[in-house]
Amino acid sequence: MPIDHADRPDLVTRDVGRAVAVLRAGGLVAMPTETVYGLAADAEQPDAVRRIFEVKGRPVDHPLIVHLPLDAARRVDLDGWASGAPPAARVLAATCWPGPLTMLVPRGPRTSDVVTGGRPTVGIRVPSHPLTQLLLAQFGGGVAAPSANRFGRVSPTTALHVVDDIGDLLDVERDVVLDGGPSGIGVESTIVDLTVDPPQVLRAGAITAEQIAALVESEVAPVSGPARASGMLDAHYQPACRVTLASDRRAAHAAANAARAHGRRVGLLDRTHDLPTAARELYADLRRADAQGLDELVVVLPAPRGIGVAIRDRLGKAAAR
Ligand code: TXA
Ligand code: MG
């Protein structure tokens, strides 16, 4: 049975001030973003950051993204977190932030080894969710955060998903889940590596490689096998049920009928007519398949355009065994 919000009124809050106090005291805040919920700690308190890895069950060499606030002039202060960020970083910061874009840049002195797993680069992003903007602005520093799910599982897009996944591992005395409603985009941010020339997209998201290329007026390498961000394992974003991919509706029905003939409980998912909704609902759809006790979910793949690229990527990982 999924835990209901009502079971954890102590852990879930809409009070930003309480969340800021938790960050300052070295606790964990599950925070809403426009992509997915993140599990945040003060990026400058190594012990707090280490607890993120414990709660997630994530290997400590998988680096975390640093989330930064905008200042009063609605500018982001990269100084300290990054060093020698290339001109493309400034262009993308001015046009895409706040928003679903993470940039990999050379790290600066404020960025610790716990956050980057000892790498010379750091992933930085400014999320646009209003509650989290407020949280970051009031906190005033950077917070390190991965998605707020157990390692290898489907990312959370509601506070309830977070409670379901890690509620039992959080401590009501020192941690909190900040409820900002369902994430509007629903898939993780685009990651672009600006330390290579040309820049390379390491993870597809709502902001496409074509959009980035137009903004930085340069070629941008699309996601490719070996250069993908560390920690991007093939078997990621997995529900418990088997996920089968189909190229169109007809193929999906054939696959579903074949599975039924083997006595399996099968669901069919086709949101290809509305890709923003497909992305927003993707992880909730995968969780629902498990909650319904399905053995197999057959999913129609969207065309590889716009956010369809990101949806195909996540579905490919959900289907990998
Ligand atoms: O939308 C998002 O990006 C969400 C929200 C919470 O901001 N965060 C998120 O974080 O998806 P996470 O940790 O689940 O995925 C970030 C990916 C990981 O695969 C990590 O290995 C990679 O980014 N990454 C982060 N910093 C990196 C670095 N310095 N070098 C290479 N890969 C990095
Ligand atoms: Mg993740």
List the helices and strands and how they pair.
Blueprint: E1 12-13, H1 16-24, E2 29-31, E3 38-42, H2 46-56, E4 65-67, H3 87-96, E5 101-106, H4 113-116, E6 121-125, H5 130-139, E7 143-145, H6 159-166, E8 176-178, E9 190-193, E10 200-203, H7 209-216, E11 242-246, H8 249-261, E12 266-269, H9 275-291, E13 296-300, H10 308-319
Parallel strand pairs: 1-8, 2-8, 4-6, 5-9, 11-13, 12-13
Antiparallel strand pairs: 2-3, 3-7, 4-7, 5-6, 9-10
Instruction: Give a short account of the largest sheet.
Output: 10 strands, mixed
- List the ions, cofactors and other small molecules found in this model: threonylcarbamoyladenylate, magnesium ion
| Rg for CA atoms | 19 Å
By secondary-structure content and strand pairing, the structural class works out as: alpha/beta
**Unreliably modeled segments:** none
Helix content: 25-40%
Distance separating the two termini = 26 Å
Q: Average pLDDT across residues?
A: 92
Question: What is the 3D shape?
Answer: globular
Number of helical stretches of at least 4 residues: 10
Counted beta strands = 13
Major β-sheet strand ordering: 1-8-2-3-7-4-6-5-9-10
- Order of helical and strand elements: EHEEHEHEHEHEHEEEHEHEHEH
| Quaternary class | single chain
**Percent strand:** 15-25%
What does this entry look like structurally?
By secondary structure, the chain is α/β, with parallel strands linked by helices. Helix 1 crosses helix 5. A ten-stranded mixed sheet has the order 1-8-2-3-7-4-6-5-9-10, with helices on both faces. The model has no long low-confidence stretch (mean pLDDT about 90). A hairpin with a 6-residue loop joins strand 9 and strand 10. It is about 30% helix and about 15% strand. The longest helix has 17 residues. Bound molecules: threonylcarbamoyladenylate and magnesium ion (MG).
